[in-house]
Amino acid sequence: MNHQNEHTHHIELHDVSVKRGGSVILENVNAEMHCGEVTALIGPNGAGKSTLLKAIAGLIAYSGVIHFCTENTCGSGRPQIGYVPQYLDFDHGIPITVLDFLSMKEQRRPLWFGHRRNAASAAKEGLEWAGATHLMKRPLGGLSGGEMQRVMLAFALLGKPDVILMDEPVSGVDASGEEIFIELLHKLQAEKHFTVTLVSHDLSVVSAHADHVICLNRTVRGQGSAGEVLTPENISLLYGVHSAIHHHPGAHNHG
Amino acid sequence: MVDIIYSGMDKLLPFQWLAPVFMKKALLALLCVAPACAAMGVLVVNFRMAFFSDAVSHSAFTGVALGLMLAVNPMITLVLFGVLVGLGITRLRSGSELPSDTVIGVFFSAAVALGIVIMSHRRSLGRYLEAFLYGDVLAVSRGELAGMFALLVIVLAFVGYSYNELFLIGLNEDLARTRGTRVRLYNYAFSVLLALVVTVSIRAIGILLVTAMLIVPAATARSLARSAGGMFWYALAAAVISAVAGLAASFHFDTATGATVILIAAILFALSYPANIILRR
Predict the structure, then answer these.
(1) Full domain range(s) for residue A196
(2) Is residue B243 classed exposed, middle or buried when 0-12, 13-18 and 19+ CB atoms within 10 A define those classes?
(3) Domain contains B10
């Protein structure tokens, strides 16, 4: 794939369904994520938002069609995807540093022979993009949720992605954490022209930064610009009668 | 070739316990097996595959029984059957919704049961089993020694080539996959190689303790190291120290070599906690 000329991707989902253990998690999802835009996925807990991201990333089986389109072609060939999960399920006692983690795809030479200079400088660049150079030598297991997500963003960016898929950024760190993070992502996206799809609970952040909003609850309940979608009627339909635009400081969820 | 190495050892390591040829051969065997186990062990801990290793090692009951029954060298059937069990577990684990430890448990029990059934039918086979249960590094043949050396070379080449990718898969498969790592291929390759390491090492360490040779030095390394690279070197050092000290001690106290090696590895592990506290000051 020629990344220089065909960098921009938009994603088309046609009748995408996911079943797991007999229950339907997503049913006939039809949606588009436009190239060079920030698309926000919103919906209540258990709506299938994380599952949809994983389907797009090719990490789980689904039925239906997901097309990735460049200016000239449209097919099921997957572009380079940067996936930033909500949290990393790993053994926190494992003695590896952030630099180790970021070097793993940057050098073939085994880490027991040390870091190659270009792997270390790539890692540093990735952390600069994610605003986290100070974390370079820290043990991976000792990072806070917000720090971890910056490191995972750096890891995703090092793959030179065409598409960034980001699950619910920074839950339970501090009120401004998510906003700062999405601002950062928005700025990067303007520089690097990738397509962003993110899951968010914070509707005020969504309305400030998303170009396109998809309301999801097992299937698509509405999509359009933030102004079109984030109406009181839609929100109460999606989250229940008493909801309004407010901040959710909630802990991890796998919507 | 081996004789040149032996005379070299006589000059460089003039210890009384190393004087007999079988002791030199045992030392060489352990110096092949211990580093191979340590290098794989770092990743076994990372992949949480200790139980997998146990299942493969216990499948040796059947592997040995089959060899004795078919009048083939039991080392060959042992290795082949172990690799087969390893492949079976890996295949079923990726294609089933059963929890991983349940899949392994099923294979584990079936393989042990089959071995016991065969042995109980032909009671004369039972007396051969002890050498495999506890290991018998002092009776390693030249051919087996050559096999262990080949194993060490293969393990170092494989781990040298794919340490970083395997470490990443162990951290999180999804992340590895989205960055283009061929997770399935690595999982299969690692499982087959691990089954090889386990079965070949049984001759030296024994069915009951071979998993410890993988896990204990890596656990010591985990508590001492600060980086992915450091963990490898600490594990290697812990394994080699345990192997040499264990062999010498077993000669001195007339104890089973495999078990003595593991006991020293466990002592090193216990010491790694206070050592860690001192180092972090």
Answers:
(1) 1-80+164-241
(2) buried
(3) no
Closest chain B residue to A112, measured at CA: B229
**What are B225-249's pLDDT values in tens digits?**
999 999 999 999 999 999 999 999 9
Which H/E stretch holds residue A23?
strand A23-33
Helices within A12-116 (DSSP H only): 49-57, 98-103
pTM across the whole model: 0.89
The nearest alpha carbon in chain A to B157 belongs to A110
Please judge whether B174 and A85 are an interchain contact, meaning their C-beta atoms are less than 8 angstroms apart: yes
CB environment A26-64: b (16+ within 10 A), e (fewer): bbebebbbbbbbbbbbbbbeebbbbbbbbbbbbbeebeb
How far is residue B242's CA from residue B238's CA, in Å, rounded to a whole number?
6
Which amino acid is it at B100? Answer: S
Closest partner residue to A104 (CB to CB) among B97, B167, B177 is B167
Shared domain check, A121 and A60: no
Tell me the per-residue pLDDT of B68-105, one tens digit each, with 9 for 90 and over: 889 999 899 999 999 999 999 999 888 777 888 999 99
Q: Which domain holds residue B49?
A: 16-280
Task: Name the region of A218 (left: φ>0; alpha: ψ -120 to 50; beta: rest).
Answer: left
Which residues contact residue A80 at a Cβ distance below 8 angstroms, ignoring those fewer than 6 apart? A1, A3, A159, A160, A161, A162, A163, B180
* Phi, psi of B206, rounded to the nearest 5 degrees: 100, 150
Nearest to A111 among B172, B226, B228 (CB): B228
* Interface mutation vs chain A, best among B178, B222, B223, most A CBs within 10 Å: B178
> CB of A130 within 8 A of CB of A166?
no
- Counting the structural domains of chain B, the total is 1
A112:B228 CB<8 A: yes
One domain, residues A138 and A32? no
Look up residue B211 and give its two tokens. Answer: 């998993």
In order along its 255 residues, chain A shows pLDDT tens digits of 334 445 567 899 999 999 987 899 999 999 999 888 899 999 888 889 999 999 999 999 999 999 988 877 777 677 899 999 887 888 888 899 999 999 999 999 999 999 999 999 999 999 999 889 999 999 999 998 888 989 999 999 999 999 999 988 655 555 566 777 778 888 888 888 889 999 987 788 888 888 999 999 999 988 988 888 888 877 777 777 555 555 444 444 443
